[in-house]
Amino acid sequence: MLAVGLAVVGVAIAATFTLRAFQDNMMFFVDISDVIAGDYPKQRNFRIGGLVVDGSIERQQGSMDLRFRVTDMNCELPVSYTGVLPDLFREGQGVVAHGRLGDEGVFVADKILAKHDENYMAPEVAESLAKHVEGKTQPLRDGPGECVTL
Amino acid sequence: MIPEIGQFALILALSLAICQGVLPLVGAHRNDAAMMQVGNTAALGQFLFVAVAFGCLTWSFLSDDFSVLYVANHSQLALPTVYKVSAVWSAHEGSLLMWILILCAWTLAVSRYSSELPQEFSARVLGVLGLLSVGFLLFALLTSNPFDRLSPPAADGADLNPLLQDPGLAIHPPLLYIGYVGFSVAFAFAIAAMLSGNLDQKWAKWTRPWTTMAWLFLTLGIMLGSWWAYYELGWGGWWFWDPVENASFMPWLIGTALIHSLAVTEKRGLFKSWTLLLAITAFSLSLLGTFLVRSGIIVSVHAFATDPTRGFFILAFLGVVIVAALALYAWRAPSLDSDVGFGLLSRETFLLLNNVLLVVAATLVLMGTLAPLIIELLNGGKISIGPPWFEVAFLVPMIPLVLLLGLGMHTAWRTQDARSWVAVLRIPAIAAVLLGVVLPLMFYGRTGLMLAVGFGAGLWIILSSLIQPLRSLRRKKGSAGITRSALGMSVAHLGMGLFVLGVTVVSAFNIESDRALTPGDTIEVGHFEFEMRELRNVEGPNYSAIEAVVEIRRDGEYLATVRPQKRQYLVQKNWMTEAGIYATWNRDLFVALGDQLGNGAWSVRVQYKPMIRFIWFGAIIMALGGLIAVSDRRYRLKAQEKSKVGRAAVESA
Questions:
Q1: Considering only CB atoms, which chain B residues are within 8 Å of A49?
Q2: Which CATH number do you get for residue A103?
Q3: Which residues from A are below 8 Å from B368, CB to CB?
Q4: B305 and A119 in contact by Cβ < 8 A?
Q5: Fewer CB within 10 Å, N- or C-terminus of chain B?
Q6: What local confidence, expressed as pLDDT, does residue B297 receive?
Q7: Does B152 sit behind a cis peptide bond, omega within 30 degrees of 0 on the bond before it?
Q8: Domain total in chain A
Q9: Residue pLDDT, tens place only, B584-603
């Protein structure tokens, strides 16, 4: 009986503890158009994804600081990052970034993910892109990035 | 021609699988010996035909037959021969074929080594395995035929994904599959026992060696995957809580619980229905893992190209297996109550706690893996759960588990006298606490609460695992020594202790530094200096690479030169990072090239990873422990009948 009681208490404590940690560690994926419309979690990190815009990668020579733009085929968001990039990161390819929106509307990424197979794109990125490619283009909005009507 | 032979062999194998899945079960029901006998013959035939199919696909790869779609997509003329062979299981269709081959090999092994089991029982086991095989063969033939032709044939193939051109990854999937599929044997034994309605302790004894074998292969498979991820794609991490890693880890956790609960069922006749449930769960989680990987439903570095029909097929198959098994369980399990009691301080109690904690751990991993999926289905938005959550949540059941492990090992069945228990464990306990604080301070100059707990727990397991083997060494010749299964347990737990030490030290003292370097630059990481001497171009068989020559010194004294590369594979044009690693038993120094930054500079990641080898080495020792336990003579049924020594071993273990 004692053992069972202890086990129940233990499991209850563990459950509360892990559920709280769960909330702290959830990271939402936000469409770039929504980021630009101001619809994103303000106080915490989130994920964005899309295609790296052709010709948008800017690097200060010899430094690890990098800037590029990501598009969901409707709006573009500037992203800054310092560090080592994944092998498949390149212009025109799909990318996912973790981080938060800094001042001046630049997404400050602390992690960049590009998938290891070129034929493969993260489902949420594919979905985000498909929304705008299939003609459901959203109207131009004012905001830190820029939106283009296709 | 060859691919058609392979295809034809698969169809023949399917018809034999149907025979194997139906006739022995009917025979066992009607007590018809001839029908039951069919299982053995069909198992052999099915294995041969699947082996022929596998051989045909391998032949198509070796002969560069780009008229076969699968070959054209995953090979290339210039691919080294060894990778042409491993390319067979590099993607969905071929790895499914390998899965079936392994299932057939397990089935054949069961039919060969179960001649001492009652015929009715082994017939049912073979029948259940036959039905599983029908499911997988149908899956292959209907949705994932590896022999589909490409017309007109390609002039050259699209090449094997460069990430997979690596010896570690060539053998990681086979080992992992042997483990995954091996749990189907434990599953079949459980179903057969429930079908017969005769669930005495013998069933647990028969299942144990098979389960342990499956478990040890799964252990090795996961360990190789982790090692590969470390040097090939992980930028130095060894575990990422990626959904597909979790998919292999959950069956491992449940399989580990199953091994321990089988011990109680075999020795004491307790936990019978619980053990059955674990056997069903372990295999169901293997299938769930397959579903997660194949359906592409979850974002993962491992995700195969997605195909909804495949995901649907596996999900339907999973549903049928789980529903049928649980229905049978609901029907049979209530009659399994046993009224054997055990004391509060007894091995039974500790094994019960082991099971509860391992199941909690598996549940947490399952929760974290499926949560993004469930929240999205509930329209809660797209979320991901980061590794930090898993790292914290997983420790909750793991810390008590490793602390209790040392106690449980030295606790007797039924009831344990507390005084003699304290006498045995006092010294290792005190030593573990003291050394857990002192050693990190001595070697790494720092200590802390979590560090002392982890280090102490690792030492505690190691020391308490050594007690029994050391005692048996001191014993006089002629007296009964330690049994293989007790030795196996000690060795496996020793491996666990080494693993815990490795994880603790590498998490606490690992140093990671990303810098921009030009040739001639030196950076310091810990006590080590890394000097980038030069950058040069290197040509490989199917890639060209930029190689950095990095000299490592310790306090000015030369240690080693590593040559990390950035490779571009010629066909797929994608870039790959090959890390340069200087490894000794107690630390790795890891250098990886990042990106070209302009002005001759490259971003470079340099890492100091103390004791990281203990993680993989510990896993190998765990698997070795499993192997020793399986070799225990009491599992060799013939030998046991002929000698009484075996019986004595059963009693003393």
A1: none
A2: 2.40.50.140
A3: 22
A4: yes
A5: N
A6: 60
A7: yes
A8: 1
A9: 999 999 999 988 888 889 99
